[in-house]
Amino acid sequence: MLSAAIGRYPHTAALLDGAVTMPGLRLECAEVPVISRAFAPMVREGRYAISEMAIATWLQAREHDKGLVLLPWALAARFQDSAMLCRADTPLTPGALAGKRVGVRAYSQTTGMWLRGILAGQGVAASDIAWTTFEDAHVAEYRDPPWATRAAPGSDMQAMLEAGALDAAIFGADTPKSDALRRVFADDAAGDFRRVYGFMPVNHLLVARADAADAAADVLGLMAAAEAQAPSGLPRGRAALMPSLCFAAHFCVQQGLISRMPSFEEIWAGLPAAVA
């Protein structure tokens, strides 16, 4: 039996509900209603044998030798533009964010990483913005850069945005629905990303503790069986994941989240050779 923390999606439901099985392998999946809450325990304690993990968190964990082996399986991906909101009564645009106050749950949050990379491509560097963060990175060794400050304990990001204490904020998957707020990016920004970069950004991947990496092929077999019941269209395999991994690593270096780009061999270190 291997302990696991995997979020509930249509393409994982059959696995979590026990509808797919494999002789000789059992995943004991923890109840984690908000899957991002599993990332810090996985990085800091190795709490699970198998875990979902945000791509930026894994890149930081790899740099700090946390002993987590990346498996070539995406669990969540989306275009990020709809996650950044501003007040509905302001004319704010992405190009006007330099010098503005922008909130994000954590500076290392993957959605924030992708959006800062997009902004850098439009001439707005991460250091041009006054970032406000609300919690630490999942990787304890990481410290926010000097252009980020921590909100007062108990602060609410949406309330700060609506009150004018922030000019914009990045919400991730929990983006609120409010008539007082609107998207900063234009409605066709997702299409722009696909035209420029050629892929949909991956947010969450699957990782294994080093002592469980030998089970990677069987774990992915279970994931594939669950996927067959609710196809997601997400990238599978080393080659298919490299665009997201390469751009994410580039953006992480650019933003000070990691110190250097890992090589192909470093990204897939520890993964059994039979797993493509």
What does this structure look like?
- The chain has 276 residues and is α/β, with parallel strands linked by helices.
- It has nine helices and eleven strands.
- It has a six-stranded mixed sheet with strand order 8-7-6-9-5-10, sandwiched between helices.
- Helix 4 crosses helix 8.
- The longest helix has 17 residues.
- It is globular.
**What's the number of helices?**
9
Mean pLDDT: 96
What is the beta-strand fraction? 15-25%
Q: Sheet with the most strands? A: 6 strands, mixed
Please state the CA-atom Rg, rounded to the nearest Å: 19 Å
Shape: globular
Strand adjacency order, main sheet: 8-7-6-9-5-10
Low-confidence segments, ≥5 residues, pLDDT <50? none
C-alpha end-to-end distance? 24 Å
Count the E strands: 11
Order of helices and strands: EHEHEHEEEHEEHEEHEHHH
Structural class: alpha/beta
Percent range of helical residues: 25-40%
List keywords for this structure.
single chain, 276 residues, alpha/beta, six-stranded mixed beta sheet, five-stranded mixed beta sheet
